[in-house]
C-alpha cells in the first residue's frame, strides 16, 4: 500500500486544485462546477479498486466511487461486480471454484464475493486489469477492503458508495441495507443504487444532507423492484423526486448515438427536465479509451466538454475511469476558463491537413486545419506521369484513393519507395488521377477497429500544388511546409520535382516574402541544398528512422544542410515494447544546442497511439512535448487538440496566478511501479544517428521523359467541378495549366548537379 501511495505523489500532475476557481456560473443545478467521480478509483490506469486505483482518485476536488460487495463473513470489499472473475486473479488461485447464481433474473456462472472471506479476498487475491486495451503492468496489487468503522482506510470525506446488487444479497440471506446502516456516513458522502427498493429502504435513515441517487442502467434492462425497464422509468422522473437528490444515467440517455456511431443531431431534454424537478444529473460511462462517437475525433476532452459546456446545459457530475482528464476539461477548456490568444508555443503543423478528420491533403482537410487553428499547413508533393504536382501523403494511390478498384492493372513494385506493391502517381496521368476518389485512411483500423469519420471517408477533392499555394496565401496562414521525398527516383522517371516546386513557389512570390513562412522538408540533404539560395526558406531534415542520439559529428553535418529537424516520437522519448515510456533522450537538447529547430512527428488522438503514461489522453502527450521536452513544433493529424491546449491558460506551467495547470509526465516514472517482472529479452537497442546517414549522394540528372503508355481501359471522365474553397479555375483552364507545367518541366531538365 505504501508503495502505491508514494507512487501517487509522483503521478498526480495537477489535480489538487480547488474547483471554486471557476467563478463564472455553470449551467448545473446549483450553478457550481460539475463534480468528477472516479469510477472504482482511477480504473482507467490501474485495476479497479486496487490500492493504486483508489488512492489517486481521492485527491481534493474529486469523489471516489466504490461499489460495495459483501463477503461470506459479513464484511465488504470494493469491486464493480458481484462476480469478480474479470477484475481479479481469483481464477488462478481457485481454478475449480466457479458457482452459478441467479443475478437479477439471469443465471451467472463465475466467482462470487459471498463465497470468500474478507481475508481470502484482501490478502490472497489481487486485482487485474479487466479491459484488454489497458496495460496489465499493474496487476498484482491488493484489492481494497471496505471497512465500516472510522479506522476504515477508505472511509474518507469524498466517498461515493454504490450498491448495485442489494436484491442479490437479500436472496442469498445477506442484508446490504443493514450493512450500510452501520457505515458512519456523513453529509459529504453520496450513495447510489440501481434498485428502487433499496433506495426506499435506506432513505428513511436520518443522515443530514446525505445524498441518494438512482443509477439508471441500459434502457432495456429491467429494474429489480418494479420490474419496469429503466428506459420507462426515465420518462417519469417526478416519481423519483421524493426519494433521491439526483440520478445517474449512461451517456446515451443524454446524447444518443446512432447505428453509425455518430451523435444524433440534438441531445434529449433529460438534463433540463431533471433540473426543473430539482434533480441533479450525473453521467456514467466515460473512459478515454472507449470507442468514442466519431464526432469527437478520438479526443476525450471534446466528449467531456459536450456534456458540461455545450451552451445548453451542464450535467452536475461525470463518472469516469480517467478523472484527471475530466477535471482538466472542466478546469481548463470550458469557454470561460481564461481561454486566450496563443502565446509563445510550439508550431502546430499539419500532416496532410486535418487528416484525422478528412482524407489527407484534400480541400476539406486543409480547410478543417485552418478552422482548427493550425499554424502551418503542409503539402507532400507527388507527381503525376505527365508532370502535374499535387498534394498527397504518399505516391501510392492504393492507400489514399480508390485506385485499387480501377487501376489494379497498373500495380507495380518500386522497392526504392516501399516494400509492398502499389499503384503509384507517377504511373498515372493527372487526368486519370482526377477520376479517383480520395480515401480517408485509418491507421488503427486493422489493429483494433478504430475508424476515422467513415461517413466522410471519400469526401473532398484533390489539390494541386498551385491550388495549395494559392489557398495558403489567400487564407494568410502562418506558414506552409513542402515535403519532398523520392526525388532521385522521380528523376529517373523523367520528373523534375525540384524545378516544379521552385517554379511554383516563385510564381506565387513565396521566395520574395517571409510571410507565410516556407518550410521545405525532405529526408535527403541533397534536396535541401537545392533550396539554400532562398534565405527566407527554412530547410527541415526529416529523420524518419528511430534514433537514440545524435553524435556531435552528425549534428554538425545536419547544420550544414538544414535549419531544423523532424524526429519521430520514439527518437525523443524512449518507449518500451510494453507501451511505457522509459527515458527522455538527449536528441532534442543536442540539436537545439546548435540552434536547430526540432519538430516531433507525428501525433494522433487515438489512445492506441499513446504510451500508457499519458492516461489515454492526447493532451498530456502534447503538454509533455511542450514542457518536458521543449520541441519547437508538432506535426499532427488532429490540429484542434493541440490548438485547444495552447489557447488554454492551463498550458502555462509558469503562471503563478493559477493554482491549476496541466503538467507533463516525467518519462520513465510510471514503468518503475509496474508489478510485472522485466521481460526475459530486452528491447532491441535503438541506434544512434550516424554521419553516413546524414550525408546523401548528389541528386541524379533528370532522365528524358518517356511517353506515357496507352491506358488499357477507358477511365471515367474527370469531374469538371473545382475543389471547394481553393480558388480553382475551370476544368479547361486547369488542364491547360497542367500542360504548361509539364512543358516547363521538359524545358528545365538541365539536371541537379
Brief write-up:
With 753 residues, the protein is an alpha/beta fold.
Structure class: alpha/beta
Question: Could you give the distance between the termini?
Answer: 67 Å
Question: Mind summarizing the main beta sheet?
Answer: 9 strands, mixed
Work out the number of β strands: 23
Number of helices: 25
Oligomer: single chain
Q: What is the residue-averaged pLDDT?
A: 88
Strand residue content? 15-25%
Structural features:
753 residues; alpha/beta; nine-stranded mixed β-sheet; 23 strands; disordered C terminus
In words, what does this structure look like?
By secondary structure, this protein is α/β, with parallel strands linked by helices. The chain has 25 helices and 23 strands. The strands form 4 sheets. Strands 13-23-22-19-18-17-16-14-15 form a 9-stranded mixed beta sheet. Strands 1-2-7-8-9-10-11-12 form an 8-stranded parallel barrel. A two-stranded antiparallel ribbon has the order 4-5. Strand 11, helix 10 (300-308) and strand 12 form a beta-alpha-beta unit. Residues 1-22 and 711-753 have low confidence and may be disordered.
Set down the secondary structure blueprint.
Blueprint: H1 2-11, E1 35-39, H2 51-54, E2 62-70, E3 76-78, H3 90-93, E4 99-103, E5 106-110, H4 118-124, E6 145-146, E7 159-162, H5 166-171, H6 176-181, E8 190-193, H7 196-202, E9 211-215, H8 230-233, E10 246-250, H9 270-276, E11 280-286, H10 300-308, E12 317-320, H11 323-333, E13 347-350, H12 363-371, E14 376-383, E15 389-391, H13 397-400, H14 430-433, H15 445-448, H16 465-474, E16 479-483, H17 487-492, H18 497-507, E17 517-522, H19 525-529, E18 537-542, H20 552-561, E19 564-568, E20 573-575, E21 581-584, H21 587-592, E22 597-603, H22 618-629, E23 633-636, H23 639-646, H24 691-694, H25 731-747
Parallel strand pairs: 1-2, 1-12, 2-7, 7-8, 8-9, 9-10, 10-11, 11-12, 13-23, 14-16, 16-17, 17-18, 18-19, 19-22, 22-23
Antiparallel strand pairs: 2-3, 3-6, 4-5, 14-15, 20-21
Helix pairs in contact: 10-11
Amino acid at each position: 500500500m505504501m508503495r502505491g501511495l508514494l507512487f501517487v505523489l509522483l503521478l498526480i500532475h495537477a489535480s489538487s486544485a480547488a474547483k471554486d476557481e471557476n467563478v463564472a456560473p455553470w449551467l448545473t443545478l446549483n450553478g457550481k462546477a460539475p463534480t468528477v467521480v472516479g469510477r472504482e478509483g482511477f480504473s482507467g490506469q490501474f485495476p479497479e479498486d486496487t490500492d493504486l486505483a483508489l488512492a489517486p482518485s481521492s485527491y481534493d476536488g474529486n469523489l471516489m466511487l466504490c461499489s460495495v460487495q459483501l463477503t461470506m463473513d459479513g464484511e465488504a470489499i470494493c469491486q464493480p461486480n458481484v462476480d469478480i472473475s474479470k477484475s481479479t486473479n481469483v481464477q488462478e488461485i481457485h481454478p475449480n471454484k466457479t458457482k452459478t447464481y441467479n443475478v437479477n433474473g439471469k443465471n451467472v456462472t463465475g466467482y462470487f464475493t459471498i463465497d470468500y472471506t474478507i481475508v481470502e479476498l484482501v490478502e490472497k487475491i489481487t486485482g487485474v486489469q479487466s479491459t484488454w486495451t489497458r496495460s496489465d503492468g499493474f496487476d498484482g496489487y491488493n484489492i481494497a477492503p471496505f471497512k465500516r468503522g472510522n479506522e476504515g482506510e477508505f472511509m474518507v470525506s469524498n466517498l461515493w458508495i454504490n450498491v448495485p446488487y442489494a436484491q442479490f444479497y437479500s436472496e442469498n440471506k445477506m442484508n446490504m441495507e443493514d450493512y450500510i446502516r452501520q457505515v458512519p456516513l456523513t453529509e459529504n458522502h453520496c450513495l447510489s443504487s440501481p434498485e428502487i427498493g433499496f433506495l426506499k429502504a435506506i432513505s428513511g435513515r436520518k443522515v443530514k444532507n446525505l445524498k441518494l441517487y438512482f443509477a439508471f442502467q441500459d434502457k432495456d434492462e429491467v429494474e429489480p423492484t418494479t420490474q419496469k425497464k429503466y428506459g420507462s422509468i426515465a420518462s417519469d422522473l417526478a416519481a423519483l423526486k421524493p426519494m433521491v437528490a439526483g440520478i445517474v444515467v449512461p451517456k446515451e440517455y443524454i446524447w444518443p448515438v446512432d447505428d453509425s456511431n455518430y451523435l444524433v443531431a440534438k441531445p434529449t431534454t433529460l438534463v433540463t427536465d431533471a433540473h426543473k424537478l430539482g434533480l441533479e444529473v450525473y453521467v456514467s460511462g466515460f473512459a478515454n479509451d472507449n470507442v468514442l462517437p466519431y464526432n469527437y475525433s478520438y479526443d476525450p476532452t471534446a466528449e467531456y466538454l459536450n456534456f458540461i459546456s455545450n451552451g445548453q446545459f451542464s450535467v452536475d457530475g461525470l463518472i469516469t475511469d480517467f478523472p484527471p482528464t475530466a477535471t482538466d476539461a472542466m478546469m481548463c477548456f470550458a469557454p470561460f476558463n481564461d481561454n486566450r490568444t496563443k502565446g509563445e508555443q510550439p508550431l502546430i503543423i499539419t500532416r496532410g491537413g486535418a487528416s484525422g478528420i478528412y482524407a489527407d491533403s484534400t480541400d476539406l482537410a486543409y480547410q478543417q486545419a485552418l478552422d482548427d487553428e493550425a499554424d502551418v499547413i503542409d503539402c507532400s508533393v507527388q507527381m503525376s506521369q505527365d508532370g502535374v504536382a499535387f498534394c498527397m501523403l504518399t505516391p501510392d494511390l492504393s492507400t489514399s484513393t480508390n485506385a485499387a478498384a480501377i487501376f489494379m492493372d497498373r500495380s507495380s513494385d518500386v522497392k526504392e519507395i516501399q516494400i509492398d506493391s502499389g499503384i503509384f502517381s507517377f504511373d498515372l496521368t493527372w487526368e486519370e488521377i482526377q477520376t479517383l476518389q480520395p480515401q480517408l485512411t485509418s491507421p488503427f483500423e486493422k489493429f483494433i477497429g478504430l475508424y476515422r469519420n467513415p461517413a466522410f471517408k471519400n469526401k473532398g477533392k484533390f489539390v494541386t500544388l498551385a491550388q495549395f499555394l494559392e489557398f495558403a496565401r489567400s487564407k494568410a496562414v502562418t506558414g506552409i511546409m513542402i515535403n519532398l521525398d523520392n526525388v532521385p527516383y522521380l528523376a529517373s522517371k523523367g520528373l523534375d520535382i525540384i524545378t516544379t516546386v521552385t517554379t511554383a513557389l516563385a510564381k506565387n512570390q513565396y521566395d520574395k516574402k517571409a510571410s507565410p513562412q516556407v518550410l521545405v522538408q525532405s529526408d535527403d540533404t541533397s534536396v535541401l541544398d537545392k533550396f539554400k539560395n532562398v534565405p527566407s526558406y527554412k530547410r527541415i531534415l526529416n529523420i524518419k528512422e528511430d534514433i537514440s542520439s545524435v553524435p556531435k559529428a552528425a549534428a554538425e553535418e545536419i547544420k550544414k544542410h538544414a535549419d531544423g529537424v523532424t524526429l519521430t516520437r520514439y527518437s525523443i522519448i524512449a518507449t518500451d515494447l510494453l507501451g511505457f515510456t522509459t527515458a527522455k533522450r538527449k536528441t532534442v537538447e543536442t540539436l537545439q544546442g546548435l540552434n536547430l529547430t526540432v519538430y516531433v512527428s507525428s501525433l494522433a488522438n487515438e489512445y492506441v497511439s499513446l504510451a500508457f503514461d499519458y492516461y489515454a489522453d492526447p493532451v498530456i502527450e502534447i503538454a509533455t512535448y511542450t514542457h518536458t521536452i521543449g520541441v519547437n513544433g508538432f506535426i499532427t493529424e488532429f490540429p484542434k487538440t493541440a490548438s485547444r491546449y495552447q489557447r488554454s491558460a492551463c498550458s502555462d506551467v509558469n503562471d503563478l496566478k493559477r493554482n491549476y495547470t496541466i503538467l507533463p509526465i516525467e518519462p520513465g516514472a510510471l514503468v518503475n511501479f509496474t508489478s510485472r517482472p522485466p521481460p526475459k529479452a530486452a528491447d532491441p537497442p535503438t541506434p544512434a544517428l550516424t554521419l553516413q546517414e546524414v550525408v546523401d549522394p548528389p541528386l541524379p540528372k533528370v532522365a528524358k521523359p518517356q511517353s506515357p503508355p496507352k491506358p488499357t481501359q477507358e477511365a471515367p471522365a474527370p469531374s469538371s467541378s473545382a475543389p471547394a474553397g481553393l480558388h480553382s479555375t475551370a476544368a479547361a483552364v486547369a488542364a491547360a495549366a497542367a500542360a504548361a507545367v509539364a512543358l516547363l518541366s521538359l524545358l528545365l531538365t538541365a539536371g541537379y548537379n
